[in-house]
TrEMBL record:
InterPro entries: ABC_transp_permease, LivM-like
GO CC, alphabetical: plasma membrane
Protein location: Cell membrane
UniProt keyword Cell membrane, yes or no: yes
Biological source species: Planomonospora venezuelensis
Record-annotated membrane-spanning stretches: 33-50, 56-75, 82-100, 106-127, 134-152, 183-203, 234-255, 261-279, 286-303, 309-334
Protein name, entry field: Branched-chain amino acid transport system permease protein
Organism domain of life: Bacteria
C-alpha cells in the first residue's frame, strides 16, 4: 500500500453557469408572459369602464400601436430610416375604403387585402434601400409622403378627391351585446394582439437575428453571410404590411378617409412616436401609440394658438428625461426599485 494519500476530486459541473443562465431566461420569459396576460386582462375590461369617447381614444391607440410596430421593425431592429410611413398607413386606409365603397367587400376581408397591398408597395420601395442609407434614404421616403396627398386628390373618381369617402362601420353582432364603440375596440385589440405576436415570432426567428446584424454592422453581417439587400427589402415590406393593416382598421373605426388625414405630418408624428416610445423595445409601439394619441390633444388644450410649439417642447422634455424612450425609462425605474429593495 502506498504511503501517499489518495486525493479524490469531485467532478466539476462545467454546465452549471450555462444552466443558471438558461433558468434565468426561462424565469424572465415567464414574467413577461404574466405581465402580458395582466395587460391583456386590463385591456379587455377597459371598454366597460370608460365613456364612449375614451373608448374611441384607446381604440386609436391600438391602431397607432400596430403602425408603430412596423416602424419599430424597420428603424429600431433593421436600422433603416423612414419619413414616409404615413404613406403605407394611407395605402391600407384607402385600399379598405375603396373595397368597401366600390366593391362591397366584407370588412373582415379588407384587412388582409390592404396589408398585402401595402406589403407589395413596401417591397417595391425597399429596392432603393439596397443602395441608399441615412439622409438619402430618409429623403426618398419623405418624397413619397409629400406627393401622396396631391396624388389622392387627383384621382377623384376613385378616392373621392378632397371630399374623401364616407363609409359604414362594422356593426357588432347581436349575440355580443356590445355597443358599436366597444365592438370596434375589440376588433382593434384583436388585430393588435395578432400583430404583436407575429412581430415577436419574426424577431425571434432567423430573420430577426439577420435584421439585428444588419443594424449593428452591415460589413460584419455581410461577411457572416447575411444578404443585405434581401433583408433590407424585407424589412421595408414587413414594416409597410403592419402600417397597411393599421390603416385598414383606422378606416373601420373612423368610417371616413380624406387625403388631408395622411399629410406628411402624420409620418413625422409616427416617427416621433416610436422614438419617444422606445426604439427596438417591444413595449415601445404601445407607449408610442399613447403618445401619438394623447399628446397632440394635450398640446392643443395648453395653447390653442401654437399647439405645435407645445408638442415640440414635450418631445424635447421626454427625450431629455428618457434618452432611450419611455420603455427605457420604465426599465431603469424597475432596476432602481429592485436595487433599493435588495438593500433593505
Amino acid at each position: 500500500m502506498s504511503g501517499r494519500a489518495e486525493v479524490t476530486e469531485k467532478p466539476v459541473r462545467a454546465d452549471a453557469p450555462g444552466r443558471g443562465r438558461a433558468l434565468a431566461r426561462i424565469a424572465a420569459g415567464r414574467r413577461r408572459w404574466i405581465v402580458a396576460a395582466a395587460l391583456l386582462a386590463v385591456a379587455c375590461s377597459l371598454p366597460f369602464q370608460l365613456v364612449p369617447f375614451r373608448v374611441f381614444q384607446f381604440t386609436m391607440v391600438l391602431v397607432y400601436a400596430v403602425a408603430l410596430l412596423g416602424l419599430n421593425l424597420l428603424v429600431g431592429h433593421a436600422g433603416q430610416i423612414s419619413l414616409g410611413h404615413g404613406a403605407f398607413f394611407a395605402v391600407g386606409a384607402y385600399g379598405t375604403a375603396i373595397m368597401l365603397d366600390r366593391w362591397d367587400v366584407p370588412h373582415v376581408l379588407t384587412l388582409p387585402a390592404a396589408a398585402a397591398t401595402a406589403f407589395a408597395l413596401g417591397l417595391a420601395l425597399g429596392l432603393p434601400a439596397m443602395r441608399l442609407r441615412g439622409l438619402y434614404l430618409a429623403l426618398v421616403t419623405l418624397a413619397i409622403a409629400i406627393f401622396l396627398v396631391p396624388l389622392l386628390k387627383r384621382f377623384e373618381s376613385v378616392t373621392g378627391g378632397s371630399m374623401g369617402l364616407t363609409l359604414g362601420k362594422p356593426a357588432p353582432p347581436a349575440w355580443t351585446g356590445l355597443a358599436e364603440d366597444q365592438w370596434l375596440y375589440f376588433l382593434a385589440l384583436a388585430v393588435a394582439v395578432a400583430a404583436f405576436l407575429l412581430a415577436r415570432g419574426l424577431l425571434h426567428s432567423r430573420v430577426g437575428r439577420a435584421l439585428h446584424a444588419v443594424r449593428d454592422n452591415e460589413a460584419a453581417a455581410e461577411v457572416m453571410g447575411v444578404r443585405l439587400s434581401f433583408y433590407k427589402t424585407l424589412a421595408f415590406a414587413w414594416s409597410a404590411m403592419f402600417a397597411g393593416a393599421a390603416g385598414s382598421v383606422y378606416t373601420w373605426v373612423i368610417g371616413f378617409v380624406s387625403p388631408d388625414s395622411f399629410a406628411v405630418t402624420l409620418s413625422i408624428t409616427l416617427l416621433a412616436g416610436i422614438v419617444v416610445g422606445g426604439l427596438g423595445s417591444f413595449s415601445g409601439p404601445l407607449l408610442g401609440g399613447l403618445f401619438v394619441m394623447f399628446v397632440p390633444g394635450i398640446s392643443q388644450d395648453v395653447n390653442d394658438a401654437a399647439p405645435g410649439v407645445i408638442f415640440g417642447l414635450l418631445i424635447i422634455t421626454v427625450m431629455y428625461v428618457a434618452p432611450t424612450g419611455l420603455a427605457g425609462l420604465a426599465g431603469r425605474v424597475a432596476r432602481s426599485t429592485k436595487k433599493i429593495l435588495r438593500k433593505e
